[in-house]
């Protein structure tokens, strides 16, 4: 597994990098057969350290975790515990559904835009009704079943996920509703 361990405006020492690699490797090895790479980013938020971890699995799914603590090692331990819990749930769901994905998830390219909020544009009257594009990025849309899409959304901790439905070959959306349930849009 490839590791990318970095810090945002803080220095990450060799001891912390070694600790992260050994602990994360042990946690992931229990539940995932072939993780491809891990990205760990440490940063500061006021008096707390923040640890954000993203692990890409060979099946195409991505697991993310984030934790805060007063000490940098404690922030990593909290993040590692959350990651281990997510991977355990993922593996349990795979066993429950008796479905092993033999091929990796197919990804399709798409454009992603960040639009300026109304608060930024209220000071002056806009010349047109077109929104102001702040950033333009490329994103990937996975080809999944509905169950896998819900699992991917929960693993990523995202409120919404757009995916290509493998069974119907069309774009679908799953999202977390305010009442805690999951919504599925199938146009």
TrEMBL record:
Any Pfam family matching the protein: Ribosomal_S30AE
Subcellular location, record wording: Cytoplasm
CDD domains (UniProt xref): RaiA
Family: Belongs to the HPF/YfiA ribosome-associated protein family. Long HPF subfamily.
HAMAP family registered for this protein in UniProt: HPF (MF_00839)
Function: Required for dimerization of active 70S ribosomes into 100S ribosomes in stationary phase; 100S ribosomes are translationally inactive and sometimes present during exponential growth.
UniProt-recorded name of the protein: Ribosome hibernation promoting factor
Species of origin: Aliisedimentitalea scapharcae
Lineage, broadest ranks: Bacteria, Pseudomonadati, Pseudomonadota, Alphaproteobacteria, Rhodobacterales
């Amino acid at each position: 597994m490839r590791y990318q361990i970095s810090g945002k405006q803080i220095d990450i020492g060799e001891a912390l990098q070694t600790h992260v690699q050994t602990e994360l490797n042990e946690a992931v090895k229990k539940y995932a057969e072939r993780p491809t790479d891990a990205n760990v980013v440490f940063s500061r938020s006021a008096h707390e350290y923040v640890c954000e971890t993203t692990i890409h699995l060979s099946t195409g799914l991505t697991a993310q975790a984030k934790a805060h603590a007063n000490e940098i090692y404690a922030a990593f331990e909290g993040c590692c515990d959350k990651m281990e819990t997510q991977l355990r749930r993922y593996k349990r769901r795979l066993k429950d559904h008796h479905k092993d994905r033999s091929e990796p998830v197919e990804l399709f390219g798409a454009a992603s835009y960040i639009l300026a909020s109304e608060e930024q544009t209220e000071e002056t009257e806009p010349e047109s009704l077109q929104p102001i594009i702040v950033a333009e990025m490329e994103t990937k849309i996975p080809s999944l079943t509905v169950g896998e899409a819900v699992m991917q959304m929960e693993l990523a901790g995202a409120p919404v996920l757009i995916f290509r439905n493998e069974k119907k070959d069309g774009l679908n959306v799953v999202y977390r509703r305010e009442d805690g349930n999951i919504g599925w849009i199938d146009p």
